[in-house]
Amino acid sequence: MKELKKIRYWIFDLDNTLYSATTNVFGKIDKKMCEFIMENLNVSKEEALKIKNDYFHSHGTTLNGLMKKHKIDAHHFLEFVHDIDYDFLKKNPELNEEIQKLPGEKIIFTNGSKKHAERVIERLGVKNNFKKIFDIVDCDFIPKPEIEPYQKLVKKFNIICENSIFIEDIARNLEPAHNMGMKTAWIESDDPYCKKGFDGNHIHYIVKNLTDFLKQTNKFIGQ
Ligand SMILES: [Mg+2]
């Protein structure tokens, strides 16, 4: 863990990274995406589900596919799909404490929207740590793992890659970060989509529990 001593930019993915995938926030958003597709493309529930999944896999995000193939208004989509109940996300004071202790800047880098990110970090009680959020609008709707959003992120916040770590649950999203010189930590997952490529050399740390990992990190870098 000695290279973590020089980390000054702690870059976090949002969904299924700052909170556990078992909370199924994504399941709720997925449902809203299907509703949106049914209404806007005038298709059945089954077709909507298929379109949602196909675009997610072929275009990185469902939104990206909808924009390219159907000229869907991105802001309208984001507003609609993130209109969910966030009540089941619980405060995580332990996580907050560990994030607070990390030296340097803490940044969120998400394929979702800023509004969604703000709601999530508010519910988790970790909001004060994150002055910087880089969302899908900042990415010009080009999602991770395309290289462009990583380059834009680094440029926008003057990030020094050698002093950065990126923490995320989709293994292949860590590859561009590694290629740019960042350290990477993968939030372990059984989901085949998240797992793909997890055994590659672009993964530097495998994280079972984010709070525990940060606790260990803080302990180590404080020595
Ligand atoms: Mg994620």
Can you give a write-up of this model?
- The chain is an alpha/beta fold.
- The chain folds into two domains: 2-19 and 89-221, 3-Layer(aba) Sandwich (Rossmann fold), CATH 3.40.50; 25-81, DNA polymerase, domain 1 (Orthogonal Bundle), CATH 1.10.150.
- Helix content is 45%, strand content 11%.
- It has ten helices and six strands.
- It has helices at 25-41, 45-59, 62-70, 74-81, 93-101, 114-124, 147-156, 175-179, 192-195, 210-221, and strands at residues 9-12, 105-109, 132-134, 164-168, 183-187, 205-207.
- The protein has a six-stranded parallel β-sheet.
- β2 (105-109), α6 and β3 form a beta-alpha-beta unit.
- α1 packs across α2, α2 crosses α3 (62-70) and α5 packs parallel to α10 (210-221).
- The protein is globular, with a radius of gyration of 17 Å.
- The structure holds magnesium ion.
- Magnesium ion is lined by residues 13, 15-17, 168-170.
